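If your schedule permits, I should be very grateful for your opinion on a structural question. I have a record of one protein: its chain in single-letter code and its fold written as discrete structure tokens. Kindly check, if you would, that the fold set down in the tokens agrees with what the sequence suggests. I remain grateful for any guidance, and I place the record below:

***
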Amino acid sequence: MSAIRGAARGAGSIGRRGGDPPKLVALRSKAGVALLATTVLASAVGILAASVVNVAIPAIGRDQGSGVSGLQWVLTGYLVTVVALMPLSGALADRLGRRRVLAAGLVVMLVGSALCAVAPTIAALIAARITQGVGGAMVVPSSLALLVGTLRASDRARGIGVWSGLATSSSAVGLCVGGWLVDHATWRAVFLLDVPLIVAGLAVLRRVPDTSDESEPRSLDAPGAVLAVFGLGALIYALGEGPSQGWGHAPIVASAVVGVVSLVALVATERRLRAPMIRISLFRSGQFDAINVTTFLFDGAAAAVAYLVILQCELRLGYSAAQAGEALIPASAVFLVIAPLSGRLVARVGARWLMVAGMVCVAGAFVWLSRAQPGDRYMQAILPGAVLWGLGLGVSVTPLTAAVLAAVRDVDLGEASAINDTASRIGGVIAVAIAPALIGWGGGRSLADALVRGFEPAMIAMGGLCIAGAVLTAVLVSDERTVGPQPCPASEDPTLPPRGPNSRAAS
């Protein structure tokens, strides 16, 4: 979902810029095909780095003898780094050239992946994952910006649609292949899955013209980026370690204080800057705030559940790593079918009740999946929940984009979508970080033992977060535009509608 949100971010940003520069290419030209191939490969690399490690966690824990903290940072080290550095990397891409920053990011991810594959200790693996995150922070914003900023206006919508469909499918394929590698080779091979994609992406990238917005360079908000890194990293450390070490333990308290103070300082810093990476003024809209809180809850719950279901499948239901990776493929398939259809319904019935219906469906899916126990058949225990999950996502994601973009002026569409994307990513990072506490993992208990009693209540709690998001939506979100209509600049891309109801789920 975060990849699809990136599409909205890129589309909104390009819509505000000037006319087509000379380097723009047609989608069906050789340069256009190379551009699409490069950005799909680059996005797939970022998605794989974030998701495929889920199927390898049990094997990593057995091989490295790692406890709760080490395995959690294998998961979250990459995610935290991407979230914290992505705004700064986006600014660098606009200043230095998107192709150049994308190439550098792919090279850094290649190095990080190789280091992950040969890491001798859990500490070395965490450091390598953070290295991957540095590369991912450069790849995520620059790949889509390069796609939308290089295609001619008439091909952008089609290009985003093809890109999002292919990039999104890489997660399901990666989980299947990654699981097979864990079963038949080693967990280390999982981190090499993206190597051929990186090499191919770098090779094709040479055929793509570079673009950058030299007339309106973004601020290099280094203080904001540093505060974001310290704030998110320290807070997530406290949330992840607090349940096992004790909330009164001095390092946990100190980490929590550093995290909160850094994030408060980040808000103060962004208020003072003329061109901050986060525009605080956008949060004056009550609807905008409500939707971002809903996104934080909803997407955070989804990230935690994807992690927990794979663990339950591997450690308690007797699935192989490959089978665990395949278990949720129906959710992705249903989402890809339903999401474009829900975009057509937004104009007829409005965004609010579609969002509510979708979130309630997802909550029901989590409750269904929570009851999966050893001895249950896949067709009864997992498949119905996976299908219902995909249905709920497909119904809710596109209306959510329409609602968040309806809460701001046309000239703020890019920043609004970027903030919503960030809320989604932060929700996922924090939810995965606290997942061990939710199942009671720690205090010498094995992960499998913790799942015996902790899986069902944790899943129901995640369903509760979805219901909370649905209630917030029903009460605080309006189907009407909450800001006055703004005149559309003559240079705005006519293929990008002001409210962009299909931009989030272009696939």
Residues 47 and 352 are 29 Å apart (CA to CA). The chain is about 75% helix and 0% strand. Residues 222-272 form one domain.
